[in-house]
Amino acid sequence: MVLLDQTALPDKVTHIVCSDEDRVAEAIRRLEVRGAPAIGAAAAFGLVLAARRLRALEPSEALFRAELLKAKQKLAQTRPTAVNLFWALERMWQLVESAQSPLASLVASLEAEALAIMAEDRALNKAISRQGAKLFAGQRIAVLTHCNAGALATCGQGTALGVIRDAFANGNIAAVYADETRPLLQGARLTAWELQLDGIPITLITDNMAAWVMKEKRVQAVIVGADRIAANGDTANKIGTYGLAVLAKAHGLPFYIAAPSTTFDFTLASGELIPIEERAPEEVRQVRGTVTAPKDVPVFNPAFDVTPAGLITGIITEFGVLQAPYDTAIETLQKQLKTGRKTNEDVDKCNCQSGAGA
Ligand code: MRU
pTM score > 0.90 for this model? Predict the structure, then answer.
C-alpha cells in the first residue's frame, strides 16, 4: 500500500510504502494519511495487509481470526474522532464474521471490499460535489474553507473542496480563502497546494484573520468538511471550525458542512458524545519542528471541535443538502441507507434540498 506522505507536503512529494498494519496505523496516527474518508479507506487496506500477512503463516482459522481482530483493534486505536475509521473497519469485519469460505477467499474478499470502499468514496465525493455546487448556481462568490477536505483527505475529489471544484468549473466561484489551520497547517500546506495544482484562485490567511475577512465582505459563504456528525446534526471537524460557524452567524453568512453518509454517527444523540482527540503539546509549541514557545509551557491541543447544528445552514451529502430540523433529516437518511434506497425522491423526503438556492 503506497501513501502520499501528507506531512512532507508541500515541500516534498514523497511516498510511504506500507507492508503491514503496524505501518498503516503509524501513518494514520502521524497524519501521513489524514482526513476522515481517507483514514477509513487506509484502515480498510491496513486490515487487508494484516490478513495477507497472517494467512502466509498458515494459521488455524481460529488463530487467524483472533490475530486479525488484534490488527483491527490496533487500527481502531489510532485516532478517535473521525467515525469513518470505525465505519470502514466494521464494514470489513462483517465479512470476516459472515465468511464460511477458506481463508484464501476471505483474504481476496477483504481486498475487494477495501477497493469497493475506495471506489464508493470516489463516487460519494462526486455526488456531494454535484449537490453542493447547485447551492451556488447563478452566483459568483468567494468562499472560505478550513483545514483540508479535498482530494488529499478522501479517495476522490474531496467533499468541501469537491463542491468548490465543481462550483468553480460552473463559473460560480471567484475566489477561495483558506485558513492556514494551526497547529498542523492543513490549510496552508495541503489546501493551498491542492487548489493551486487545479488552478483555482486560492488566498491563504491565518486563522485569526477570518473575522476580518468576513467583515470586509471578502467571502460570501463558508464551506468545510466533517469528521463525525451526530444524529442531531452537531458536527465535529478540525479545531477552529466552531469559531468560523460563530463568525459566519455574526456576519450573516451561510455555513455549510460537506460530508458523505459514512461520516454520520447515528448512534450518538448529540455532539457532546463525540470523542475529541487531544494531540501532543509539541504540535502547539512548535511549527514544523521550529520551537515557537517556552519548551515546558502547558498546552491544550484538541484536534477537533463540535459545531452545534443550530449554526449550520446545510449539510451537503450525496443525497442532497440536509436542512434543519436535522434530527428528522438524519433519521430519514439513516432509513434510506438501511433500505439501500438512494433516489432523488428519497432525498426530497428528508428535509433535503437538492436544488439551487437551498
Ligand atoms: O486532523 P485531520 O487533518 O485528519 O482533520 C481533517 C478534517 O478535519 C477534515 O475537515 C475532515 O476529516 C473532512 S475530510 C473530507
Answer: yes
